[in-house]
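Predict the assembly for these two chains.
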Amino acid sequence: EDKVVQSPLSLVVHEGDTVTLNCSYEVTNFRSLLWYKQEKKAPTFLFMLTSSGIEKKSGRLSSILDKKELSSILNITATQTGDSAIYLCAVHGSGNTGKLIFGQGTTLQVKP
Amino acid sequence: NAGVTQTPKFRILKIGQSMTLQCAQDMNHNYMYWYRQDPGMGLKLIYYSVGAGITDKGEVPNGYNVSRSTTEDFPLRLELAAPSQTSVYFCASSYSDRGRETQYFGPGTRLLVL
């Protein structure tokens, strides 16, 4: 059965800290891994990763995929209170349906 | 572009009632999805559609039904609502092309079944 596991499940840090969120997967015929940020409402897209070792960056956020280890990390440097959210990892598996398998999410709280 | 829109935003149902959650997208996406999200959990796929007239079950389809008569609309029907269906429901859509499969989400419908 396809599975995506995120760790830690929750994290509390102070502004300015750097955090690393983990995502591991067991998926048939991996196609891509996506990271989303979810604040009060709908998840918003952060990154899509398809190739190992290529870092994607957007401001203070960056992410990298390791296909050998079947995992990805999401780094946030110099955290701000606005980074407080649930971070969701999702993977496209086999089949041409676009279906995503989501992890449980990591809840990040950044304290001032 | 409005993106993905959902109505209603919030609804309270009594056990046994039925309702339809509406979802529409104006991005000409082939693929559409319905998820539910329970507190502290990720998203579970209920149903999905790869095009008008084609739907299929996801992980948790029991108690739900869908139809896709047009590219734009993908309503989710709850028959005989149960307390276990209390959740937040998200609709999403995406292109079908490889490399463009990013899913875009609607704002969600919060449903409470009492």
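The longest strand of chain B covers residues 43-51. The mean pLDDT of chain B is 93.
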